[in-house]
Amino acid sequence: MSRRRRRKLPAEPVEVTINELSHDGRGVGRHEDKVILVHGSLPGERVMARITGGRKDQDEGRAEEVLEASADRVEPRCPWFGYCGGCVLQHMDHRAQLKFKASRLEENLTRIGRVEPARWLEPVVGHPWSYRRRARLSARWVRGKGRVLVGFRELDGRFVADIESCSILHPAFADRLMSLSGLLGRLSVAGAVPQIETAAGDGMAAIILRHLEPLTDEDRNQLVNWSVETGIAVYLQPKGPDTVHRLSPERFELTYEIPAFGLELGFQPQHFIQVNQEVNLALISRAIELLEPGPDDRVLDLFCGLGNFTLPLACRAGQVTAVEGEEALVQAGRDNANRNSITNTNFLTADLAEPDLDLPWIRKGFERVLIDPPRSGAAEVLPLVHASGASRLVYVSCNPETLARDAGRLVHEFGFRLAAAGVADMFPHTAHVESIALFERQQ
Ligand SMILES: C[S@@+](CC[C@H](N)C(=O)[O-])C[C@H]1O[C@@H](n2cnc3c(N)ncnc32)[C@H](O)[C@@H]1O
Question: Is 8 inside a domain boundary?
């Protein structure tokens, strides 16, 4: 049997001219007739790049020295930038990041969907730091360091990054990584906690500690004491997602407000919520502005989660039917409607990857549709959107490639026109692109 030989990487950095940014935020250049993707570089730059790996047809590396800098280059705020994988664009001016994201949306719509919006929307923006109110942090006991590391994974994804603070995390957690590290280090199960999830509402926060081995009474005391000291609720997850339960405090609830609509939503720390609350609020207003629901309109909200768009829509429309696959979120949606005394919503559970066109709620017909699918997009529900009879559709997307694919079908197969599109700055300093698009049915 032939064994693959590990490739010997060049000992010295190589000079590369960067022409563009890849979809994941790396500079793209050429070296010795091969494409090279260089972390920490920008289009128009000449850099010395250390080659760190790659494939037969493509090298990968990181910029060690900038010989000629782009006008868009700025000093990264975080000392761990280039090592921690939490951000990849901190070295790029924030306005240039937005331009990059808008150009990615445009390029995908043109190349994949063969569509162009009639109007480009101004980006939906918020403050670019301390925005991440939900995160999944990795944890690992490292003997050599004598402590548990808590943070994002390193840029190459192999190890947990050894970082002390984080400029994009919500303020409740930004400076608490060492505190979490110390807490885990005091537990008997320090080596059996692979992950901590963080969640923040308006003025309250929680962690979910995933533990692979049972906790002792002393572990529980340590966790309760930490919760009392920090004011952060501690939830435990001994097995799958259904086993999440609160340890401390006895009474606690995560909530966030949507002030423009006078709403307050409750959620559990494991629930899906939009990561960036400021941008979320602006995105909700933008979506409703574009959708223009009237008081007699029936609205269909697909992939509705816990009602983030549903309840604001219900404040403007006649009736909203909201559909979601996760039963716990559907229940949270109903609870949120009750909490806000909203009576014109109907929350339903359905697997939208296999929608049934014969379901009674689809046959009712709708004037407006909003969809906010996961990264895989909404291919399976497009016939349903078409059959609904809706004249306007707002599509909120966290993946410009699947948005472009679905936009192509809506336009070329189902007779909609792409009236407007633009990006939302949901994840500053990362390469993730959130976008919003308005489709109108052609007469
Ligand atoms: C991007 S989130 C949007 C949630 C919500 N609109 C919000 O703003 O909070 C996508 C939602 O789609 C749901 N989802 C994913 N796959 C699904 C499927 N096959 N059927 C129904 N819902 C699904 C997820 O549970 C999640 O709540």
Answer: no
Count of the separate structural domains present in the chain: 3
CA of 332 to the centre of ligand 1 (A): 13
Q: What are the φ/ψ torsions at residue 135 (nearest 5 degrees)?
A: -150, 150
Atom of ligand 1 nearest to the CA of 326: 25
Q: Is 145 exposed, middle or buried (0-12, 13-18, 19+ CB in 10 A)?
A: exposed
Say if ligand 1 is within 6 A of residue 380 CB.
no
The mean pLDDT value of the chain amounts to 96
pLDDT in tens, 43-53: 999 999 999 98
Q: State both tokens at 247.
A: 């340890």
The boundaries of the domain holding residue 46 are 14-73
CA 166 → CA 70, 95, 162, 172, distances in Å? 26, 21, 11, 11
Residue 190 corresponds to which tokens in the numbers above? 């320090």
Q: Is 232 found in the same domain as 160?
A: yes
Alpha carbon distance 152, 182 (integer Å): 17
Does 56 share its domain with 140? Answer: no
321-326: long-range pairs with CB below 8 Å, 24+: 321/345, 321/346, 321/348, 321/361, 321/364, 321/366, 322/346, 322/347, 322/348, 323/347, 323/348, 323/349, 323/350, 323/352, 323/361, 324/348, 324/349, 324/350, 325/349, 325/350, 325/351, 325/352, 325/353, 326/272
121 and 157 share a domain? no
Residue 139 and residue 120 share a domain: no
Q: What is the largest CA-CA distance in the chain?
A: 71
Q: Which atom of ligand 1 is nearest to the CA of 273?
A: 9
In one letter, which amino acid is 155? Answer: L
138 lines ligand 1 (CB under 6 A): no
DSSP string, 333-355: HHHHHHHTT--SEEEEE--TTS-
**pLDDT at position 1:** 40
233 C-alpha to ligand 1 centroid (Å): 25
pLDDT of 157 higher than 90: no
Regarding whether 343 and 221 lie in a shared domain, the answer is no
Q: Is residue 260 part of a domain?
A: no
Distance 321 CA to ligand 1 centre (A): 14
- Reported residue count of the chain is 443
